[in-house]
Amino acid sequence: MSKLFLRTLREDPSDAEVAGHRLLVRAGYIRREAPGIFAWLPLGLRVLRRVEAVVREEMDAAGAQEVHFPALLPREPYEATGRWDEYGDDLFKLQDRHAADYLLAPTHEEVFTLLVKGMCSSYKDLPLNLYQIQTKYRDEARPRAGLLRGREFVMKDAYSFDVDDAGLDASYQIMRDAYERIFTRLGVPYVPVKADAGPMGGSKSEEFLSPSPIGEDTFVRSPGGYVANVEAVRIHPADPVDASAVPPVEVIDTPDAATIESLVELLNTSYADRHEGPWTAADTLKNVVLALTHPDGRRELVVVGIPGDREVDLKRAEVAFAPAEVAPAEEEDFVRHPGLVRGYIGPQADESGMYALGERSVDGIRYLVDPRVSAGTAWVTGANAERRHALHVVAGRDFIADGIADVANIRDGDPAPDGSGPLGSARGIEIGHVFQLGRKYAEALGLKVLDRDGKQVTVTMGSYGIGVTRLIAVLAESCHDDRGLVWPDVVAPFGVHVVATGKDDEIYRVAADLADELEGAGVEVLYDDRSRVSAGVKFKDAELIGVPHVLVVGRGLAAGEVELWNRREGTREQIALADAVAEVRRRLARD
Amino acid sequence: MSKLFLRTLREDPSDAEVAGHRLLVRAGYIRREAPGIFAWLPLGLRVLRRVEAVVREEMDAAGAQEVHFPALLPREPYEATGRWDEYGDDLFKLQDRHAADYLLAPTHEEVFTLLVKGMCSSYKDLPLNLYQIQTKYRDEARPRAGLLRGREFVMKDAYSFDVDDAGLDASYQIMRDAYERIFTRLGVPYVPVKADAGPMGGSKSEEFLSPSPIGEDTFVRSPGGYVANVEAVRIHPADPVDASAVPPVEVIDTPDAATIESLVELLNTSYADRHEGPWTAADTLKNVVLALTHPDGRRELVVVGIPGDREVDLKRAEVAFAPAEVAPAEEEDFVRHPGLVRGYIGPQADESGMYALGERSVDGIRYLVDPRVSAGTAWVTGANAERRHALHVVAGRDFIADGIADVANIRDGDPAPDGSGPLGSARGIEIGHVFQLGRKYAEALGLKVLDRDGKQVTVTMGSYGIGVTRLIAVLAESCHDDRGLVWPDVVAPFGVHVVATGKDDEIYRVAADLADELEGAGVEVLYDDRSRVSAGVKFKDAELIGVPHVLVVGRGLAAGEVELWNRREGTREQIALADAVAEVRRRLARD
């Protein structure tokens, strides 16, 4: 340690939001170079290489073959699949000296597809699984929590190629199993959750989330075993109900009912007779105006009708309207469309038979409804006039929606879509993603092979990613205490940390010999040989750095003993110096 | 090989200019993604990792510590040292979503300097040597010869930090020694040559060139041991000579002397009496107009006077005028400066005492001369009028130059600057570069430490680079024959290539067992198990791929023998199957 390029910090870095990031910086593992862009110092690089090694071993064992693509890629393949535009501002774009367009690749579906197209021509060449451990780029709007959401980061990305759906299912399962082995070996808690394929296209898709309060993903689970990313929850359309007894639409004055709460209060005060039991927010139909921005730049307003006790979840809306971007409508939109009476929008016709919403309306603004708004359900909604609402507005009778939009928020206690009980939510960090791309990329780029019958068929693909640098953030976050990091053995930067304490030369001589002997026995050693540093500072550094096994050579040496300190369990025991190497090896083999 | 992601090509790729590149593509090592940008396929990635391992081992052994910086870096540090502008079009620049400027780093002097500034404060922290093996970017105007001159490439770059010049000399020598070990272990021929520090600044500098006819660098050497890059040859200014006997300037009509050759012919025909012995081109002074573009964008014309038997070497001129860019003057420049009479420019005054060149001239265009143009030397040169020249123009008498420009070409037979004999030239590929940056970066970025006396001193730095991917190009270029690659053992993608030939199941069973046994003995095996491919095709593939040791399991098996084929030496011998593993291990250990 007297020579190691390492300076531990006593102060927390000012820009670190989460404990794991603070400790990685303080313990000298990483250093910030720009927002979301980090340099790896000697300790950090060792951890990174060890995580990569586990990932590589499991990928090789699963039959995937390693290649390595450039990060700097030309525009054309990404143009062909539409991702050049779809990725939006998240894509780092640049031009070379000849003004040709390039990008820093966020993932490599396109070029893997083209590679296989260039090299494979027959079903005999498949199945094939190729992977790389490679530096990726995403121009995140808000880089966050150190390595957790960076702009330059290391990913393992793999791509499978199969001739048919059954093959893809098998390849998918092999990768999924490999991912479980990787996270288990690394000691990272994980939950596989159903995911929406999002802008990547494709069908079957699961994310591996590591449950964590600092996670950016919300997932839900039911007692019966349903687990899904909130974006991926699909509410089944409710069954139609009989509306023959519902009275006709009745427009009422609602002078002081600008909010759902005040409307419900007014209904219960003045219109209690129109409803069995008390009115609730769930009896109202809230019509929310959203602005979609399509990949071609076109802006479209849509109105979604959801029960008044729910909100639009913009992340779920992004999925529902992908690849368009979604935002709430702006002031100007209402100015431009005076037919949309803010706070009083309704899907039904007015007295003259005019509709404010939907295909039949003047502006032709699409009207989509929550899956709970089934035919025959009756609602209180806006009357398309200031301070007026309409009662008894029946779906299918008084309005016909242009479609369904499953964009309302999911709440704890909602029933799981598969009937497995009430949902509960938790937060998680996405550490891996496996999904079936299907034929989207192969079609866009013309990847076909001859099948057994000599027919050209389009190849079907899977895409599998692990955030390698993010895994380190997750490990730092889940493996620390208030004194420092506590790495699992499998990724610790060293197998053992030898700390010599005291001023006696003999101690340093013995400790140096012990370090050599351990190295000779195949254990990587961090040896704290700093003779002018106090034992207290050395122990503080050892706690901060977090090598789980620490051998202290000091006072006990007179009795032929050293102290073996298990940083993880907090136990310290005196062992004979002569047994130290064997005991360290035994502990490393056990963990 | 039946599963390996590999397709060998029979045809040469159309864009491959050199043999090594053609073979790397045909044998399935690399694939071009864009000009100067390549993907690494499984075989290529193995070779890359092995070269990296040798470099890493020697760097670690030399006491350097590995870190890893991002490729994407913010503008500011490069702005502080001037390189943001100096690098010109070679730098890939981009903006993030907030319009902040970034670059893809070509080398990392700035951020290493800042890293050390952030972590070191005392002479006790030094000497320090940090390195990385990392992906670099240069937007080359003409990417060339595959991996030889790429736009995305892998480099090992190291930086040393010392408190004083003696420390820097020691650090420099340690790296220089490590480089010699690396190139020797890899079996790459090399010559260390004196180099000009160029746009990086600094003093002592050597390039490691691998002699090769496809090299882009020309170097010269003398029988007495002088070796230098042509750009780095410094001609000593010639001694003054006595001009007291030289007649005054005589202007002559030279109607048909548009070239140096015709001028010399005219002189020997009509003015032989003015010269002892025949006139030669070396008696004439050629005045060449160059256009410099300075980093701030300013354009400046300069005129350089060189003996008429030489040319301006633009690469040497780039060094002389760095950081300005140099180009020949254009037609327009002459239009703009009518005082420059193209083909008849001279540095002396005309009859009315007016100068066309230099500080005293109307345009003030700088006039610089070759070191051979010493005081008292007499020249035939232009008379600043169409079809007229001047004889007896004496340096120091008839004109005074504004300075020296050592930009004339170096020719075979020129004397070495150190008096060690005549120079001969050869071409080479730059595979490494070691140089003393001195305090340039530390000063620009404020890297100081306290010395032994408690005084703040600016740190002195060295910078050391190896082109890792370029080394593979050099190896492919120097290690092949007309049938394919022939790797040195140390970088071969596999230790041995086992080829099963024939149709007998028994052969494939034995070969598979042999492959397993070799793997068990720690030898990496490429096993050609393709039962439907002819022996001829298998041998052709083996020759193309170039694993130096090939074990053929085929007909000889009946007699308990296999064939051990040494691809490098072309020898084949039958050995007992039972001895095969031991023999392969013996050969691998020997090489």
UniProtKB/TrEMBL annotation, chains A, B:
GO CC field: cytosol
Cellular localization per UniProt: Cytoplasm
Keywords assigned by UniProt, alphabetized: Aminoacyl-tRNA synthetase, ATP-binding, Cytoplasm, Ligase, Nucleotide-binding, Protein biosynthesis
Signal peptide residues on this chain, from the entry's feature table: none
GO MF entry, a single one: proline-tRNA ligase activity
The reaction(s) this protein catalyses: tRNA(Pro) + L-proline + ATP = L-prolyl-tRNA(Pro) + AMP + diphosphate
EC number: 6.1.1.15
Annotated NCBIfam families: PRK09194.1, proS_fam_II
Biological role stated in the UniProt entry: Catalyzes the attachment of proline to tRNA(Pro) in a two-step reaction: proline is first activated by ATP to form Pro-AMP and then transferred to the acceptor end of tRNA(Pro). As ProRS can inadvertently accommodate and process non-cognate amino acids such as alanine and cysteine, to avoid such errors it has two additional distinct editing activities against alanine. One activity is designated as 'pretransfer' editing and involves the tRNA(Pro)-independent hydrolysis of activated Ala-AMP.
Family as reported in the entry's similarity comment: Belongs to the class-II aminoacyl-tRNA synthetase family. ProS type 1 subfamily.
Protein name: Proline--tRNA ligase
Originating organism: Pseudoclavibacter caeni
